[in-house]
Structures are given as structure tokens and as C-alpha cells.
Amino acid sequence: MQDEPGQPREGAQADGAREDGAANGAGEAGDRAQAGSANARQAAAGALTIERLYGSPSLDGPAPQNLKFSPDGTRVTFTRPKEEDRTVLDLWAMDVADGRTYRLVDASALAPEERELTEAEIQFRERARITHSGVVSYSWDEAGEAILVPLDGDIFHVDVESGETRRLMQTEAFETDAKVSPGGRYVSFIREQNLWVHDLERDREFQITQGGGGAVSWGMAEFVAQEEMQRYTGYWWSPDETRIAVARVNENPVMIVERFGFEPDGFTVTEQRYPRAGTANAIVDLFVFDLQRTIAGEAADTARRQVDLGDNNDIYLARVDWSTDSSTVYVQRQNRQQTRLDILAADAATGETQVALSEEAETWINLTDDFTPLEDGGFLWTSERSGFRHVYRMTPGGELVQITSGDWVVDELSGLSADGQTVYFEGWVESPLERHLYAVRVDGESPPEQITEGQGWWSVTLGEGAQAFIGTYRDPATPPRTGLYTGLGAPIAWIEENALDADHPYGPYRDSHVAPEYGTLTAADGETELHWMMYRPDHCTAQSPCPAIIEVYGGPHVQRVTKTWTPLRDQIYAQAGYVYFKLDNRGSWNRGHAFEAALHDRMGTVEVADQLEGLDYLQGLDFVDPERIGLWGWSYGGYMTLMTTLQAPGRFEAAVSGAPVTDWSLYDTHYTERYMGMPQENRSGYETGAVLTHVEGYETPTLMIHGMADDNVTFDHSTRLYAELQRRGELFEMMTYPGQRHGIRPPELQVHLLRTIRAFFDRELASDEVRARGE
Fold first, then answer.
1. Which candidate in 411, 570, 625, 710 is catalytic?
2. In the predicted model, what is the mean pLDDT of residues 350-370?
3. I need a surface site. Which of 304, 525, 547, 753 has the fewest CB within 10 A?
4. CA torsion sign, 509 to 511 to 514 to 515?
5. Which one from 133, 137, 635, 657 is the annotated catalytic residue?
6. Which portions of the sequence form the region Disordered (predicted)?
């Protein structure tokens, strides 16, 4: 569930809540007027306002997204929000030779009024964290002559030289997951739960699979694959485009959860296949289709082969890749307990498999996208078998060679040099707070060489043969700036300099910006070092201590303390006079597997203990008022807010819990069982980790928020807690968002969410001085 792989998503900076008049009573109008006058005063003083935070253009500047090299290396393409509407993306390009930047696709011109999304597409975008509209994805053909753009439920083919655009189909059905085949002759897509192929040369469509519909689909990723495995597709082209590996998903065994989508003018009931912890998963099979035989209409027994995934069908199909010569399909098969991951090498012609490599762990195996086939028949791999994720090479003879080592973490593989002798990766060699690009020889006989500079966070797209890369850099004082660099890290040209000057969208607010401070403290175990970051307004002193707010996530696979351009939402609190604090407790990401696995089988325990250490630290600072500290979080952070305040009654003055898990038996299989095991086998862990187990500790005034159509952390997580608190006669506030899911997306509702949270904390925490400053 997460913003990142597999946890209840963070989502807070994009999530919001609709104020509930019944819960907040007569104070709503007064709070609204007070907040409005406060924002007016802040704007006049050059301070950031909530309305401007979510307005257009984006305050982060014109930061490019979805960056790619053209296949011939002559262009860089990217999506960028419209200046007049930051929620809509257009497709742009830069010519490498002269640095000229121009718009390739105007989303509004192609689809002036986009069709209403289908429920399946809405769910997919929610799973993939796609928060924009317009050109949200695109792909190049192999020749570098055309780009494929899915838009308005159909697919557009764009000639990059002429700019000519043609709509490949115009159907009532939604075409999704469109791809250009490796050779560029075909466009594949999903229509009505089946895989189709469009032959560009003959301008004809062919249906590849049959029988998709209802609980059965072809070429699509099931719920947990999308939400928790970050696998968003269910089909894979061979490099020579003669075959396609296609997953068949049967969701009939999966329990149906009735999800009530409450809207402002009514409600819908969706019967969602949602595999709750301990219940049955979908059955997933894999087939390899011979494209020409399938197009020719040959019988299934000659046109396709089923890949042997073993006798046990209670497994996860985690990843699928092809060998460079198209003869072998590599399948990552994960057991239900997620303690074993096998890489199966399948003969594409017969479907027969053998195990090429296995990973085992007493806790769990984290998935990656790092499998990289090599021309010699071996492959690159990353593994946490040493306790920290590092790079390995499997030789054609079956020998596993470790390339990197040390008490630091490789994040992801970026690519290979032209001669195949150097591996490039992104990771954290020097500090877990800074992310850089590194190069290391495949023989593993020398340490990694850092390519990028600065004391911040890099995201990199490597060009063919590592001759050049696209790099985006950000740090606490620098919004995202993107450039083209040589393989050695020398700058070639800006793609978007995004200089934070007076003309930048954030320029008017620079003087009010509060810079974060960083430090460490010791975890509750008395020995582990934890990283924190804090915003301290200048006026907060020993003579005038300020209230403080702790923002928490706390769950696995997420890191909140980094030296990057942090969410400007943080500035709203700091500029209002709050000390704003974040701590990465044990169980969070990027400190090695043992650090993350500290919460194994016992969620809601060690994370809580560490956050209370953070509270102790804050209360010991002379510029913090120890009696006025609040706590808030979204998703796992909402869960942590409840678990921490309930297990430490009286320690916090106020709390806000957004979209919280309240009972892990209600959450999905792949995420929950990874960390907690099966409910039938860890009853005490599930009981201890349930919010209702600790509800007798309710004492902290709490605002609870949830989207009423949430299909990730379903609304009944919150309603069960509401009912129990009401039964006990406890008073609390709540905010619900009709029609909104786990992420509250519309900008006007994001404004409302932050105003709601701010108003609550101001009522519960702020001193007269803070109110006089702007509230």
C-alpha cells in the first residue's frame, strides 16, 4: 500500500478530504472565513497560500516527466504539464544537435474533451499513480520515426518529422496498455480483456486471444500485481517480434468485496475482486503465442504453448523478460509466502522450464525490475542476499558473480556500456539521503565510480551504450532541473534548467522559504541510527517556543527523509509557525533488509516505538512547546497515526489520520502477507497490529479522513473504527470525500483537504502568536 511499491499509499500530498458539516458543526463557516483572510494576508506578505500551492502553473516549475531517448539518439522526449493547467500533460521533444525544444503533441488538440474513463482504466491509473490526464504515456517505434500515444480511449500514431497524427482506431471500447512492437511493425493493446494487434503496414487488426470477459482476462495485470508488485502489464513481446508471452488471469477464486462509491448525487455499488489477506488469489497462467500462426488462425494447440510454472498454482507471476535472442522467456515466480523467488528459464518453443536462479529469505523477497539479459546468454541481477541490495552477474555457465558490496544499497540498474564491460546503477553509496549514478566494472574487481555531482537526488535515463544520459537533479534548495550529460557526467545541454529566479513560479515565495535541517537520533532498540528532517521557523526560540507537527509514514519500502526538493506542502505548516518534523523509523526503506524487516510479523510495534523516540527528541528541544505537538499521516501513515496515539495516550495534543488501515486482515494478500504472514498463522501479530485492539487508549483529539470510493484501503477500515468509537461514547472529527479513492486528486479538493487539516491543527495546537501571524 503506498506511493511506492506495495503498501497503503502515502498519497497525502495528492489526497484530500471533503469537510463534513455534521462532524465539524458550526465551526465550519468560521474556519473557512478565518482561513480565507489568513491566505489573503499570507499572499500579501509573500508567503505561500494553500490555493496557490495547488494552482497552475506548478510551483515546482516546468519539470519534464517520462523522459526518453529516441532510438537513434537524436531526440529527447518528455511530457510536461500545461502552464495553464498543471493536471494536463503534453508531449515535448528536444533535438540533441541544437537544443531546440518544441511541443510534439498537444493533448487538447487531439482530444478536446477526453472521454470519461472506464472503471478498469480508473483503477489502473490509481494503481499506477497516474494523477494527470492528457499524454500520460507514450512509446517510440524502433526506427525512431514515430511515437505511439494512447489518448481518449484510443491510440494515436505520431510521425515525429512531419508531426502528422492519425488515430489508429475509434471504437466505443477503451484500448489500454498500448505498445509498439520491438521492430515497429505492430501496435498491441488490450480491448475488452483480450489482446489485439494492429498491423501498421497492412492497417489491419487481429485478435490474438479469445475468451476474455467477466472474471477472466488476457494480457492484463491482476489487482495485486498492479497495486503491490508494480507490474502493470500482462503481455511481453519477444525482441524479434515473432512471439508474445501473455498472462491469462482467472479471478473466479477471488472474493468479491462490495465497494460503495458514494458520489455527491448518489452512489454506485462495485463488486470488486479484492483478495484479502489469507484468502484465495487469482490463478495466473502464462502462454507464448506464435504471432504469425495466431494471425493465420491456426488452432490454439499449434499457435501457442503454455509455460510450465510448476504444479502449485498458488504462486505469483512477478516478472517476465525475454532473452536477447528471443529463444528464452525468463519468468520470476514467487511463492505465496514470498520467501522464495525463482527465475525460470522457459523454452519459448515448448514452454518447458528450468530454474536459472533462486533467492530465499526468512522474511521476504523484495521485487525489482533489475533483471537484465546479456548477449552472451547470462544476465545481470540485484539481490539482498548479503543484507543489502547489490549487483550480481550470472554467467552463461551458471556462476553467480557479485559485482558490488558494502553496507549500502543499490536502488536500480540503469544500463550497460557499449562494450558490455561496465554496469551503471543508481543508489546510495555515500549517504542514504543522496541518490547518485554510479559505474562499476562487471568483473567486480574495482569499487563503483560516482558519475553525478552535488548533495542531492538524481534520477537518470541512460542512453544506448551509456554514451549519454538524461539526468534530473534536485536538492532542498533546487527544484527539479533536467539536462543532457555525457556518459562521464559532463553537461551537454539543459532540457529544462528550471532556475529558481524571480521569474520562476516559486520566485515570489523564495524569501519565505524555510530550509530543512537534518540529523540523527537513536532508535528504541538503543543502537540503530535513525535519520530525521525538520523545518524550523526563524521565530521559534527558547523564549518563544512553537507548536510542532510530526508527519509520519513509517511503513516498508518508503523513505521520507531525503536531501531532495521536498513537497511544498511542508512549507504551508512551517510558514504558519509550526516546527515540522519527519523521521524514518525502523521498517522504512533504503537502510538494508534487516532495517526494513524489523517489523516482520509485528506491524504497529517497532515503528511506533521509534516514532515515540522522535517525539521525545522534539520535546527536548527548547524551541518546541512540548505540550503542543501533533501527529498526522496518510495510508500507512494514517495507520501509524492511530497506532501511535492509541498506544501512547496523552503524548500528543492532536492527530490527523488519512485513509488508514485499521485491520490487516482487511487488506490485500501480496502486501499484507509479505510483512505479516497469513492471518491463520500469525493471529497474535494481526491482533496486536489492529487498531481496534488498542482503542481503549483513545484520548488524543483526532480528525479522521477517508475517500468514500477508496478501492485500495476500503472505506470499511474507517467505518469500523467510527462505529467502535461511537459505541464507546468517544468524540472525534471526520471528513469524508464522496467519489474519491485512495488519492484525492482534483486540485479543488486538495485545497480543501489541506485547509481542513490546517484548520484542525490550528484549533488544537496553535498559540495566540501563531494565530496572529496569519490565522
1. 710
2. 98
3. 525
4. positive
5. 635
6. 1-42, 56-77
How many residues are recorded in the chain? 775
Q: 50 and 751 in contact (C-beta within 8 Å)?
A: yes
Please give the model's pTM, rounded to 2 decimal places: 0.91
Q: Which domains does the chain possess?
A: 12-57+507-774 (3.40.50.1820), 60-180 (2.120.10.60), 209-367 (2.140.10.30), 369-504 (2.120.10.30)
Cell numbers 521536498 label which residue? Answer: 566
* Catalytic status, residue 742: yes
**Residue listed under C-alpha cell 534520477:** 459
Cell 532495517 sits on residue: 595
C-alpha span between 661 and 679 (Å, rounded):
15
Q: Which three cell numbers stand for residue 600?
A: 516482520
3-state secondary structure of 319: strand
Only one residue has cell 486528486, namely 745
Amino acid 626 reads P
Measured CA to CA, the distance from residue 676 to residue 49 in angstroms comes to 41
Catalytic: 593?
no
Give residue 258's Cα distance to chain centre: 26
d(CA 628, CA 546): 8
Which set of grid coordinates corresponds to residue 501? Answer: 529566479
Largest CA distance in the chain: 83
- Contact between 178 and 106 under an 8 Å Cβ cutoff? The reply is no
Q: Do 438 and 489 contact (CB within 8 A), yes or no?
A: no
**Of 504, 531, 706, 742, which is the active-site residue?**
742
pLDDT digits (tens, 9 = 90+) for 642-665: 999 999 999 999 999 999 999 999
Question: Residue 261 burial by CB count (10 A; 0-12/13-18/19+): exposed, middle or buried?
Answer: buried
Q: Is 491 helix (H, G, I), strand (E, B) or coil?
A: strand
Q: Would you say 423 and 391 are in contact if contact means Cβ atoms under 8 Å apart? A: yes
Q: Which pLDDT belongs to residue 594? A: 96
Q: Which residues contact 772 (CB under 8 A, 6 or more apart)?
A: none
Burial 409-425 (b: 16+ CB within 10 A, else e): bbbebbbbbeeeebbbb
* C-alpha to C-alpha distance for 187 and 131, rounded to whole angstroms: 25
- Neighbour tally for 529: CB within 10 Å: 11
Residues contacting 202, CB < 8 A, separation 6+: none
